[in-house]
Design brief:
2-enoyl-CoA Hydratase, Chain A, domain 1, 2 domains, alpha/beta, 13 helices, about 325 residues, globular, 6-stranded parallel sheet, about 15% strand, 3-stranded mixed sheet
């Protein structure tokens, strides 16, 4: 085999190995939790597929490591209804006690966050936080009109009613957050019995949770959290990157880059702008929520294969392999 041909094959293989290694590094889990500890899952931003997967994995891992309980520290403006349902299901079926704490002060459990907070075994909020405004809206924040709007509204009401009944929280109050888009301060929610605790710190939360008996998969469990060690389990770098894509500003910038990348490629073919544009568009559509993560991943893998093949036939000085 000629040296030039051999080098053209090795270059993309090296890039592929580097890419796989980087992904594995970014997705690598952190250390195991200490048995008897309380695992804290910081959860901020838009409710999406990444958040749902992060909470599911975090709770499963905490249980596997023998943790006493999990605290989801929540601050969200809301998000995807489908992802919300996944998170609610995770909380209702959790194999160990899970508390949702809306914190720090100034945070909110708006829209989808209301469903998530009410689904926890223990619902707590910090001073200066609020909850509610859970009326379903369209992807751009617009009202959903007609029969579809009625269907989505009735489904959301039934869902939050079931959550409230399961966790023995006030049904009428819960329904008002959906039907009337009502929003409440921490004191109002506490007075109505919608949440269990108002606490200022994680230490106070664990102290006041101690001795509470909750039902976990049909069995009573008495919490022993006073003085328990805490271990924070944040999103790994790959999850943080994917979660960042759901920011509308980031998604729009990626869409713009992708759009003009394709335009420039059509005007002056050079592969580079077209490939970068395609990558940016795929990431943008993942951020918009119109492209599921698994499909987006497959498209990126397919695009990578095409680039590796092109690297064998097109002189790009490694740019295609790197892309």
């Amino acid at each position: 085999m000629k040296p030039r041909v051999l080098s053209s094959i090795i270059a993309p293989l090296q890039a592929a190995c580097l890419f796989v290694g980087l992904v594995l590094l970014l997705a690598a889990p952190t250390r195991a939790a200490t048995p008897g500890s309380v695992v804290i899952l910081p959860t901020t931003g838009v409710v999406d597929q990444v958040m749902a997967g992060y909470l599911s994995d975090g709770i499963a891992r905490a249980h596997r490591d023998g943790a006493e309980a999990v605290v989801v520290q929540l601050d969200t403006p809301g998000g995807s209804l489908d992802s919300t349902r996944e998170i609610v299901k995770t909380l209702l079926e959790a194999p160990l006690p899970v508390a949702v704490w809306v914190a720090p002060s100034g945070s909110r459990a708006a829209s989808a966050g209301t469903f998530i907070t009410l689904a926890a075994h223990v619902a707590a909020m910090a001073p200066g936080t609020n909850i509610g405004a859970a009326t379903p809206v369209g992807g751009q924040g617009e009202d959903i009109e007609g029969a579809l709007g009625d269907k989505v509204m009735n489904d959301a009401i039934a869902s939050i009613t079931a959550i409230a009944e399961t966790r023995e929280r006030p049904v009428e109050w819960a329904v008002s957050t959906v039907e009337k888009a009502a929003s409440y301060t921490v004191d109002q929610a506490l007075e109505e019995g919608a949440i269990d605790l108002k606490v200022t710190s994680i230490e106070e939360l664990l102290s006041r949770m101690d001795g509470l008996t909750v039902e976990v998969n049909g069995q009573p469990v008495t919490l022993q959290t006073a003085g328990a060690p805490t271990e924070e389990l944040p999103m790994n770098p790959l999850q943080q990157f994917l979660h960042l894509l759901t920011d509308p500003n980031i998604a729009f910038i990626l869409f713009t880059i992708g759009f003009y990348g394709i335009i420039f490629e059509l005007q002056s073919p050079n592969f580079v702008t077209g490939i970068l544009g395609a990558i940016a568009l795929i990431l943008a559509f993942i951020g918009f929520g119109s492209l599921p993560l698994n499909i987006g991943g497959l498209l990126l893998i397919g695009l990578a294969i095409v680039m590796f093949v092109l690297e064998l036939t097109v002189t790009s000085h490694g740019l295609l392999a790197i892309a």
